[in-house]
Hints:
single chain; Aminopeptidase; 8-stranded mixed beta sheet; 4 helices; globular
Amino acid sequence: MTVTSEPGEDLRDKPATAVERLTEFTGPDLHDLCDAAEAAIRQGGGFGWLSPPPREVMEAYWKGVLLVPERELFVARLDRTVAGSAQLVRPARNNEAQAFVGHLTTAFMAPWARGHGLARMLVEAIEAAARRAGLRVLNLDVRATQEVAIRLYESLGYRRWGTHPHYAWIDGAWVTGYYYYKDLFETDASSGDGNSGEGGSSGP
Ligand SMILES: CC(C)(COP(=O)(O)OP(=O)(O)OC[C@H]1O[C@@H](n2cnc3c(N)ncnc32)[C@H](O)[C@@H]1OP(=O)(O)O)[C@@H](O)C(=O)NCCC(=O)NCCS
């Protein structure tokens, strides 16, 4: 499934935006995904990597993602070029107790593609895929320093339930992490403002 810009929108002056699930790499997509990830890592939002690994390691990582049965890879395109991605991780088959709980992870956009609504489209596409897969809850975690991402998740109804003061070790210091969940079937009326008491609606 591909999600694209709003129908009827005047796209003459706007770059085309789209989000889709990838199940194989064709054309320049793997190369572009590596480029986008490297740019995000250099800018400081590299889903774990603090500096870009060698290109063959990065390519092997993405190819490996497609091989993991529980993982679904979604990419965001700006004018058809892959510019970012995120993954839905479904529970392992042995995990009956959490069979309805998924994880939204490794979300990033290349700096040159930010501000076009693609991250919001990615999260919404992953939520739709999770619902189709029968999941009821999505979990995610994020560095407290990723303020744009935090605002995005809270605006989409993710509730902060925990804070980990030793979440990541970056440049010789601990970085705090926040843990979020979203009940995918909770109605707006019962979800309040979409934020937990701990963080309120203002973020860090
Ligand atoms: C967080 C991130 C994925 C957002 O990507 P994006 O495609 O620019 O986001 P969008 O264009 O969908 O914008 C999402 C919201 O953030 C706002 N936003 C985007 N960039 C912003 C900025 N620099 N300052 C303030 N707000 C900003 C948008 O206005 C939008 O709000 P709205 O939907 O209420 O209008 C991107 O900034 C990024 O990769 N950051 C580093 C890595 C990271 O934080 N990953 C998430 C870790 S879990």
